[in-house]
């Protein structure tokens, strides 16, 4: 039996007794030969997949699969069967069903085989993708609530290319491969989740995924996604954090080029413009344009570049409504936004210039000129009722905070208590604001500044919004040493977690309490009671001189 089933090499028969002398079992020898042959077979399968005519090579692989599939559950043969399936562009349906029905086989097969299973099984693909999407949202939220508060390293600091190297984007890119059907499924998942949760991070993932496939030059998908060139151009603007004139023309060309009957593409374009990184770039560019217009004595309505930025902001901010209603039309810009609100913002920039010039003039009997403290009533109304105005207004406030302009900040702060859809209490705005406030660190020692910021703004929302509670505690953890002790104590009490507070708030409050405990001076030592014993006379030692 051994002779019949052994390795039929005449020269081997005389060599085998040497192994017996060395105490090597025949099993070990045959196992090593088997492993070696399997490696050679795997190499040969990979080679067959690349050589000869397409029909011939796949015919060979299909024959091999037919012969070997019955042994697929044998651990030693399984890698060969899996390798054959991996190289087949279309595995027979029957085999795919058998793999799908067996958990261990499904787990063991290559992603190339899984793609063939997924494309006809949306529910199974959804089960694979869902944990990755949850992980992605969690990662974004962790960055927004990070305890490292800095104006230099914030949520928007990483470049688009760096963000695309993230684990989730890379895994999804690999799962999709060149399969347009799977790509469409992922986009459908993202649209559905965006509609269900209003979470804008799904819009970021939509753009990142497309650009990740662009980086890999997967033309099969990029050429069929109508948003590809628009996203590519916008990606370059996000990298520079500014929309220059040349790219503005390109983006406008894409928007104007949406043909009749293809309006549905506006839904996808609006989702890409709703990405917080896109909104950030458009809003920063808008503020920069407004400052340039002040210097040029030009009104906003006379600047086509500014009007295009507003058009894109409006399209991005209207993404949810458009996808929800399935009415694919660009939202109309309100004339008052351009004729009243933006000139009002420009007047604030002028107030700063005027005040700075007045400070430099030699002061005569008239005394120092006070900084304007009132806000025009329409400004509050715009922030409460117009989403685009609110977004631009918030970015203007971030801009003046970054410039350490305390006067302008305190003047506009009361307008933030009531804003459109509570945008001033959104995580992205509070993340950026807390970072910029570190530049005004020395002002936290002043009672007036702290009262306006904490009592007048933050604490108005803390009881009803846990995220605001978390952001205030993050800020105090970073700047507690700058705040006056009495104010700090009252803030610590005001920010105590309630029964409804989540673990994150409790943890942050504990960290703050610990830090404040360490800052407290140690209690004075009680005076020692004098000893009744007579002191011994000191004996001089040779060392004391």
UniProtKB/TrEMBL annotation:
Please note every region of biased composition (Basic and acidic residues): 508-520
Q: Which UniProt keywords apply?
A: Elongation factor, Protein biosynthesis
| Region span, Disordered | 508-545
Q: Which GO terms describe its biological process?
A: negative regulation of transcription elongation by RNA polymerase II
InterPro entries under this entry? COBRA1
Which GO CC terms are listed, alphabetically? NELF complex
Q: Name one GO molecular function term.
A: translation elongation factor activity
The protein's name: Negative elongation factor B
Organism source for this protein? Dryobates pubescens (Downy woodpecker)
